[in-house]
Amino acid sequence: MSEPPEDRRRRPWSIRDRKLLPGALSDEGPLDLQIVGRMLLHTTLVGVAAGLIGAFFFAAVEYLQYLFLESLAGYSVLRANGETLWTDLTPATDAFRPWILVLLPALGGLACGLLTRLAPETRGGGGNATIDSFHRHDGVIPARVIWIRMLASFCTLGTGGAGGREGPTMQIGGALGSLVARLLRVSARERRILLLAGVAAGISAVFRTPLGAALLAVEFLYRDGFEADALVPSILASVIAYSVVISIYGEATLFTHALRFPFIPGHLPLYGLLALLVAGLAATFAASLRLSHRLFVAFPVAAWMRPAIGGLVLGIFCTPVILYVGQLSNTHGQGLGVLGSGYGAVQAAISGASWLPDGASGILLLTMLSLAKLVAASITIGSEGSAGDFAPSLAIGGLFGGAFGRAAEMLLQDPTIDPGAFALVGMGVFYGGIAHVPLSALVLVCELAGNYDLLVPLMLAQGIAFVALRNRTIYPAQVPTLRESPVHRDAFLLDALKSIRVADLMTQGRAFVRFSPETPARIMLERISEATWQDVFPVLDASDRLAGLVTSDGLRVLANEGSDLPWAIAADLMQAPVSVRSTDDLRLATERIVNHGLREIPVVDERGAIVGFLDEADVATIYLKAASRAPVRVEPKPL
Hints:
Blueprint: H1 15-18, H2 33-72, H3 98-116, H4 127-136, H5 144-158, H6 166-184, H7 188-207, H8 210-219, H9 231-249, H10 268-298, H11 306-329, H12 343-351, H13 359-382, H14 390-412, H15 419-434, H16 438-449, H17 455-468, H18 489-498, H19 521-528, E1 536-540, E2 546-551, H20 552-560, H21 570-573, E3 580-581, H22 586-596, E4 600-604, E5 610-615, H23 616-627
């Protein structure tokens, strides 16, 4: 008997054999209603856990700053209205000790570096690592991150590191969501959603802006786009975490401010100019972070020593600034927002302070503090200290916005200009532009203001900054859109297959080998030796309609055992008929090719008669072009 050729066509790759579509044929549509209830239950657990840990984290950082900065160094920490948890505590000394303040951040950095040896992913701000975990690690953040990130942040922030609480709690909350997902053994898709719910809960717990935190969790992953599936779980987790925190500490906004900010259309050009200036400052901050990190990485020491060196540089830089400003304002050892989160300085820019002079001196001081904060935060975060970039971004923008508002008020002699409004807008525009989160930053500021009076100025300013900062970001792990995310890549590649019809790619008019159900095995083996391109042989009934398929693999088995099966006919060897119509799309065709292990699939008309064939190699070519984002052009198939 004749044996079928081993390989009629050379196939450098194959959908079926090389699995070019891993997970691509799974359903990536909206969450099925049958899992919504389960997701909300899981989200509730994440929200409660993140709320409790966030409340502890917030209080612990404040207490450690009191213990080290105030009691030990005599440095008066400047806090915003919503940060004053330990008002009943009196520092052990009133004497400012600059030499201790120089060394404290270095000691905290040393302890931080030693801790992060156990979990290198906890180095730096936390936001970028969380984004990377979502896109490239399938929503998995190791459980050790929860306690290592917390302790490392205590060491950094408690000793004066120039960063915020929100970045670390982003990652801690995300790790909580990932841990809950693993304990409950949910799918990878649900695990990613719970990670984002944890991020929202972590931010809400320490910043107390529940809606803005939920929007930020689904927006900060992409330069353009949202993770829509996670929005409702993020809102629920954020609300629960917020409720836990205010049940412990009471309800209060982070900043005090004017009750109302009247909307004056004539001030819109000023807000537009502020947005352009803030965008330039934000781009400088992003460049400063990159430069700082490169310099510290290039320093010839072990990675765990970098935060200590960064802390020492921070102390050497900040202490003279504090001494100099203290002499000018007669506030020796006064906190100026250069160390820590900087929210206290933003509070002064919004509502004023006894140490902040009026006129040009106040404008100059706020501008100087915004630049000093930019440098200080770049040192702490660039040296991989465990401190967030969220708070410094808000502080730099808020200080600069406050200076701009005061300058506009002085130059224009316009008493209707409220510098506090410009501080709030500058704060939101800085972070919204550089993190590509304009909507969530807009809502965050409105929640901080307690009203939506600044909505229109924020919309204008956010739009300008968003365009101006298109190619700048503080989160390198961000991807442009959902299409570029490894999480959604296969789903979007399938869109390319769904947009092409089988008729555009099928081979038609070519002679092919066919059998009837009664064709003997001997005849089948003789006839397939004539086939030069087929791997699938249709079995047709008396009306020329497709009745089944015989594959080359099956015929190869028959050739090896043919002497034992002299009675076999095509009906014994054929499998159920599998086909597509010329009007079907390539996704459906690909599903059938993969699910039935075929190398080509017959194309039939309404009557079931074969009108052509679709080859898996042609489908794979289209898929690979879509994967490389090359233009997908369908060449006409020859007759």
